[in-house]
Amino acid sequence: MSQHIYEHQGTEVRLGYDRPLDYVYCYVERDGEPLYSNLSDPQAGTQQQDVDYFRPVLKELGISLPEAMFDEVKHDQANHVGNRVVRYTSLGKA
After folding, report:
1. Per-residue pLDDT of the chain (94 residues; tens, 9 = 90+)
2. Where does residue 36 rank: exposed (0-12), middle (13-18), buried (19+ CB within 10 A)?
3. What is the DSSP string of 22-79?
4. Which one of 24, 50, 61, 87 is separated from 41 by 20 to 30 angstroms, measured CA to CA?
5. DSSP character for 93?
6. Threshold 0.85, pTM exceeds
7. What are the sequence ranges of the domains in the chain?
8. Rounded to an integer, what is the distance from CA 60 to the centroid of its chain?
9. Are 70 and 86 in contact (CB under 8 A)?
């Protein structure tokens, strides 16, 4: 599983690619409380193949991510990358 993690002001977003199950995912928590999980979203679940699906979801939550996160998840998915963890700041990769 690849994990691309963005933390800002108590909010953490994990965006990535699950290689064993072959889907993209998104998980958001604020101050330790879950706000969104693809597993609770009937349109995403474990069938979602398009990381861009999460853009409007994140926008609705008032979250803007570095563009590199979406690009890197697409790269991971295209190359079946697993066991990769990358952290980001508002300026890009940490």
Report:
1. 999 999 999 999 999 999 999 999 999 999 999 999 999 999 999 999 999 999 999 999 999 999 999 999 999 999 999 999 999 987 667 6
2. buried
3. TEEEEEEEETTEEEEEGGG-TTTTTT---GGGHHHHHHHTT----HHHHHHHHHHHHT
4. 87
5. E
6. yes
7. 2-93
8. 15
9. no
